[in-house]
Amino acid sequence: MELNEEKAGSPLTIISIDSGRRPAGMSQLLVDNNVTHLALNDPEGAVSHAYGVRAVPTTVIIDDRGRLMYRHVGFGEGYEVRFRAEVEKLLDWM
Amino acid sequence: MIVVVVAAALWAWPWLSERRLQADLDALEAIDGVSERIAAAVAVAEAHPDMEPERFDELATHIAEAAYSNGEFAGVVALVDSLRGTALVPALDAALARELHDALMILHYYEEDPAKTERAADIARSLLERDDVSADSYAGMANIGATVLMYKPTDDSEHYWLLRRLALTGYERKDELDAVVVGALTASHRELIKTAALSRGLDGALALADSLLSEGGGDPVAAAIHAARFSLAIEDEPDVALDAAQALLETADAPGFSRTLNGISYDLVQRDMSLDVGLALGERALELATSKRDSINVLDTVGWAHYKLGQYEPAALRLKEALDLADEVLEYDDVTVQHLLTVYDEAGQSERAIDFLAALVARSADPNVEARERLIELLVETGRREDEIPELIAERRYEGVEEAPDFTLVSEDGETVSLTDYRGNIVLLCFWSYG
């Protein structure tokens, strides 16, 4: 994700959470979208469960005070624009 | 003493056997190489030859998935072809044949190759002769067949009758009615009757539907036929369509019918036809909804039906329920959002509309030009001022927002990391796998 490079030096952290239980085709999506800033293992899937993840990929955006502000399923058209806009908004509100 | 020990062991045996089987099946997921995984799956089949057909389905799926990752659906066909005729446990062979059927149908979808549908049909016919195939497999084959033929029809009308037979077999052999079986019944009848219309005309197809109804088979089968009658007749024979809609109220009682009923309900409401029947179908669809997504869609339909009937309070209530269920941030051009705003408008409830719009704009990162314009209009209408907007919005920024659950996990580099380590940062969390 270009967002990685763009926001280097700003208070944005991108974390990926993986329990290894991926549906077919997800590995390719991972490679295509290059989300590797910080990769955490969630072997029991407990964190996925706690976040109510039903479909993958799901992305949530958390603000500087730990509030869950945005949630998005999939990497459909225009997702980067939306993420960027959400992150900008939250940086503004900090 | 020995008798007690032996008796205890015999009592525990099936439970232990099941545990061992589950462990063997779980272990398959960890095996990476295609041939290794296949060999392991075959070994499981040989170790547990008396498993339920559903278990063999699981094994066959593991094998098909391994083949899929190697070369898409053509890879599944090649692999299964190479495996069949080797000394596989018969039930595994049957389960693999099912996977082959599905792969062939999907290849027909992409390549439009009648030879593939022919082969798939032959496989389906041979599987219908067996008693070691799961009900879900029959229903699954009917579903995939109907979906593929919906987009890529075949000239061979026998194939459509075969779909129906597959669906009916799944229905007869299944203990409990569920969405899979109901889906197979509705899809297969829909395609059969639709195709009949091409060769026999509308009247001929309706006559066929009537003769199928007289064959009986229970409410779920009748409901599937009525749903097909509705789709067929709605444009040119509204009376027949209405009759079918009413018959659905009497016959469609199982959870799997929620989507079909929702579709028909919405259709009637959009056409301003028999709104009472439309509402009743929507309410039934709501009772039968099993997933969140289905509930959201049906709530929108029911809300809109109430609106068309001039029942603004229940309309607003249902539409709000739909919006509250949605996980994602709402957009101004979302159908349900527009529905709700229309209701508030008709009912003259500007205050509620202002509240709703302010919350929508607050939670969204979009500039939301149209929503803001509407907000301004409403404020002006109610004698308030445009410059109230920033405050209205700021108040609602964190409305309904929850705290992100904390967690502590280990990174791929061995570091222990907690979410709270990142207080003061914006965190973008990507989930790649299920809980």
General description of the model:
The complex is a heterodimer of chains A (94) and B (435). By secondary structure, chain A is α+β, with helices and mostly antiparallel strands. Chain A is 35% helix and 24% strand. In chain A, the strands form 2 sheets. Chain A has a two-stranded parallel ribbon. A two-stranded antiparallel sheet of chain A has the order 3-4. In chain A, a hairpin with a 4-residue loop joins β3 and β4. Chain B has 435 residues and is mainly alpha-helical. A two-stranded antiparallel ribbon of chain B has the order 2-3. In chain B, α6 crosses α8, α7 packs across α8 and α12 runs antiparallel to α13. The mean pLDDT of chain B is 90. At the A-B interface, β1, β2, α3, β3 and β4 of A face α3, β1, β2 and β4 of B. β4 of chain A pairs antiparallel with β1 of chain B, so a sheet runs across the interface.
Element-by-element helix/strand order of chain B: HHHHHHHHHHHHHHHHHHEEEE
Biggest interface pair, counts: A-B, 62 and 39 residues
Count of individual beta strands of chain B:
4
The major beta sheet of chain A can be summarized as: 2 strands, parallel
Note poorly predicted spans of chain A: none
State the order of secondary-structure elements of chain A, H for helix, E for strand. HEHEHEEH
Mean pLDDT of chain A comes to: 74
Proportion of β residues of chain B? under 5%
Report the helical percentage of chain A: 25-40%
Write the layout of secondary structure elements.
The complex is a heterodimer of chains A (94) and B (435).
Chain A: H1 2-6, E1 12-18, H2 26-33, E2 38-41, H3 46-50, E3 58-62, E4 67-73, H4 79-93
Parallel strand pairs in A: 1-2
Antiparallel strand pairs in A: 3-4
Chain B: H1 2-29, H2 34-47, H3 53-83, H4 90-111, H5 114-128, H6 135-151, H7 157-173, H8 179-214, H9 219-233, H10 238-251, H11 258-270, H12 275-288, H13 292-308, H14 312-325, H15 335-346, H16 350-363, H17 369-381, H18 389-394, E1 402-403, E2 408-411, E3 416-418, E4 426-431
Antiparallel strand pairs in B: 2-3
Helix pairs in contact in B: 1-2, 2-3, 3-4, 4-5, 4-6, 5-7, 6-7, 6-8, 7-8, 8-9, 9-10, 10-12, 11-12, 11-13, 12-13, 13-14, 13-15, 14-15, 15-16, 16-17
